[in-house]
Amino acid sequence: MARRKASAVAQEDTKPLLEKGSTRKRLSNADDEDHATKRVRGGIEERTDYARWRMRDDHGRHTWCYLEDDDALKQWPQTYADKYYLGLPLDLPELPKAKSPLDAVRNGLEFFEKLQLPSGHWGCEYGGPMFLLPCVVLAWYATKTPIPWYYATEIKNYLFARAHPEDGGWGLHIEGETSVFGTTLNYTVLRLVGVDADHPKMVKARATLHKMGGATHSPHWAKWWLAVLGVADWDIVNPVPPELWLLPDVVPFAPWRWWIHIRQVFLPMSYLWSRRWRAEETETIRSLRKELFVEDWDKIDWAGNRNTINPRDNYHPKSWLLNLINWFLANIWKPYFRVKPLSDKAEAWAMKLIEMENENTDCLDLATVSGPMNLVCLYAHGGPDTYAVRRHKERANEFLWVNKEGLLANGTNGVQCWDTAFAIQTVMDAGLTEDPRWRPMLLKALEFLDDQQIRENVKDQDKCYRQQRKGAWAFSNKDQGYAVSDCISEALKSVIILQKTPGFPTLIDDQRIFDAIDTLLTYQNPNGSCSSYEPPRAGPWMEMLNAAEVFGRIMVEYEYPECTTAVVTALSLFHKHWPDYRPKEIERFINRAVAWIKTNQLPHGGWYGSWGICFTYATMFALESLASIGETYENSTHARRGCDFLISKQREDGGWSEHYKACETGEYVEHPTGSQVVMTSWALIGLMKANYPDRARLRKGIKLLMERQQPNGEWLQEAIEGVFNKSCMISYPNYKFTFTMKALGMFARKYPDDTVL
Ligand code: LAN
């Protein structure tokens, strides 16, 4: 029954895949003149009613709901958080003007507290990358998943809002220049949700795409998606052989050694590549074959375009070795050696690994790329009605977010544990944890971290190559369940801080704290540093096999001063309170980690950051590491050089403003829009950790933070803050609260009598 319903949807194909009920509703309204003017061409609504959106928080699982029913609207009023995310006015009263940095923290907390969600954490949009929404929408289309009209409408609005104002295309991320990757995929999304090809914005985007060479010039991942949709032929996709998964573990390039994100993306890619699976052909697909390419579709030399790529997309050109391997795989291995029993075996094992991921994450999956890809694999494997397919469809909603521009996809299923840990630490740094005013908020936050601690390792941990995780915290929530060294550390610090504050209950007993420590201690690399999800399982030479083209540093784990510092500070704090638990190992860990931090310092005195922009972010962490072993400006050349580096970048107005280009180029670049509150806070925190002596310099920065605070206590969103894989930026909207208040609070505690203003 469900099968028939689904294909019926796909067959009325000149229409987008819209929910049956809502399609009917829209058609019956078609005569209503008022309503009709609210449509864009092609039958998609102009906008939804923003008063009807709600974000449901179910133990840290976020799903956006659109209430079409008026009674439901009354029963479920919009919260401050909903309105804030949606960009609706909050109508909050003005707070008494902050007369000191601590007043500014209090005002900031007044505002931030209103955004705390019922389960105790803070939510946020986690957008930036422009290839995530396509993963979700293309997977929906390939699996004939109806797209509710309100999703379709707001997807269209978001993408229109994010189209480049001049050329109409899209980039790798929201601040990036137009690329074939972004334009091909987002143009396709718009067509699949029902926007007409002759809409003026589509005409413009198409012209830009054609100028860049059309979809034949797109990178590997876009070619793979187009092949899955049947818009391109599989021959244009460089080989992704699942038989790599059959290699013995000792093989130095076996996929289990790759960075977790790339191996979880390679997995579904390899499965569908092997099957050359494609979605059912529809009118829209046939039309896209004409729209996306410069050449006549029937005449395209697919295999000949496997390596065609526009230079804008070619951030990490394929190595000679990978080109050679690809040639061999495509021309020798596939036609002559890839016998059916072997490919069957490889597909079966790949599917088994996907099934283990289903089980370990309850079909949520690691993140917004692998999740939708796995959905298509499971659909191709078992048809539309299996539990795994239905559950994946449900859970895919957790990757979505609605902001004032429309509907986008987040980089993960949220930033729940990470932001909550920082929020708690912010209050601690300001010395306000014992203030009864903030107790309810902090208690709720503690309860959230209690609820979100991962209590068990994954089943068959070794079989699916997972890292120990008992006692850990994930970046988002425990459903996703991927432990990360710094996420464990920040959450653990916050739990210890609160549980050691008079008046807070011990929700997490010692044994659970020890579990976290035991897991954390598995995270040190041989050279003393820490990585993200796992210690590296192969060397950086593996980048020679980086086939993604658009990203750098993606194939293996690297060493990160950010992650290393988080672990160091968590272990130090723990050691202070539990001096008898594995003391030797902990001391050794800390000493080796900080020694590594020193070796990682760059000649200019700063450190390169991989997860925030860029030198400012990592230098803040590195200075904190040094401070944790008592090395500060006064007594350490490393700390001094780090401070001097930061100070050399302070701007006239007292702020800092590093641009994301620094992540790509490895050189410090100033942001053209001037000082940023988040960047300024990072620099100030680093300087204060290192006991930088020139207070006047700090005051100038603090003053800027205070002046940027709004009368209701908030700070406004400025330039993008985060990054991954060197080239792709990602937003951390809560940083403008947590780090800003942390800097203000630290200053207030250091110089209690200095009112700054
Ligand atoms: C994240 C987000 C959090 C981030 C920190 C905790 C901040 C960092 O300190 C360690 C690495 C980690 C966990 C991280 C890794 C890469 C992620 C998951 C992301 C930047 C969010 C999105 C990104 C993911 C790779 C996006 C999917 C894209 C691919 C290239 C597969």
From TrEMBL:
InterPro entries in UniProt: SQ_cyclase_C (IPR032696), SQ_cyclase_N (IPR032697), Squalene_cyclase (IPR018333), Terpenoid_cyclase/PrenylTrfase (IPR008930)
Ranges where the Squalene cyclase C-terminal domain occurs: 417-747
Listed EC numbers: 5.4.99.-
Xref: CDD domains: SQCY_1
Residue ranges the record marks as coiled coil: none
Superkingdom in the source lineage: Eukaryota
Ranges of compositional bias, category Basic and acidic residues: 12-22
GO molecular function: lanosterol synthase activity
Species annotation: Thermothielavioides terrestris (strain ATCC 38088 / NRRL 8126) (Thielavia terrestris)
Domain Squalene cyclase N-terminal: start-end pairs: 113-401
Gene Ontology cellular component terms for the protein in this record: lipid droplet
BP term (GO), one: triterpenoid biosynthetic process
Annotated region (Disordered), positions in chain: 1-36
Key words, A-Z: Isomerase, Lipid biosynthesis, Lipid metabolism, Repeat, Steroid biosynthesis
Stated name of the protein: Terpene cyclase/mutase family member
EC main group: isomerase
Family: Belongs to the terpene cyclase/mutase family.
